[in-house]
Write a structure and sequence with these properties.
By secondary structure, this protein is mainly α. Helices cover about 60% and strands about 0% of the residues. The chain has helices at about 10-25, 30-45, 55-70, 70-75, 80-90, 105-120, 120-130, 145-160. The chain is elongated, with a radius of gyration of 21 Å.
């Protein structure tokens, strides 16, 4: 074998992309044989482990899998530390907020993505928000806390539907 072996960063990227690909294609991400077979087809030789990949082969496999995924999945940026903390704590019972944080564009984007996964339109969300099962009393999403309560409810519905 010539060339350097796969780096830890490449390995992590390849495994992450494989998981995203499997979710999109409704495949089992834990199927090792399928994963190794797919990568072997992409690079043109058989491997027994991702650790057998050379750095250039890893780049080839990463490029190949990225071409199969929608661009919006690849360009998603991590939220800031403050926003990530707000995603986790705003709206929880017993959490005292010193300041009201208004809902922002990335949070609304996440909400719309969940609606798409459920097959809901805006009218269905509005009906849900005004129903007795609504996680927000006002029937409107204005703050991060209200958005989180709705997002958590939608995620719960998606888990139950799966």
């Amino acid at each position: 074998m010539t060339g350097s072996l796969i780096t830890g960063k490449q390995l992590k990227r390849l495994q992450t992309l494989w998981g995203i690909f499997c979710r999109q294609a409704n495949r089992d991400a834990k199927d090792r044989e399928a994963r190794l077979g797919w990568v072997a087809d992409a690079i043109g030789r058989q491997i027994s482990s991702f650790g057998d990949l050379r750095a250039d082969e890893a780049n080839t496999a990463i490029d190949a899998i990225q071409k199969l995924l929608p661009q919006e999945l690849l360009k998603r940026k991590r939220p800031s530390r403050r926003l990530a903390q707000a995603y986790g704590t705003a709206g929880r019972r017993g959490q005292e907020q010193k300041e009201v944080q208004l809902v922002d564009a990335p949070t609304l984007e996440l909400l719309h993505r969940l609606l798409g996964q459920l097959g809901w339109r805006r009218e269905r969300l509005d009906a849900f928000l005004h129903s007795s099962k609504s996680p927000v009393r006002s029937g409107v999403i204005r703050t991060m806390a209200e958005a989180n309560r709705v997002i958590w409810s939608l995620k719960r519905m998606l888990r139950r539907a799966a």
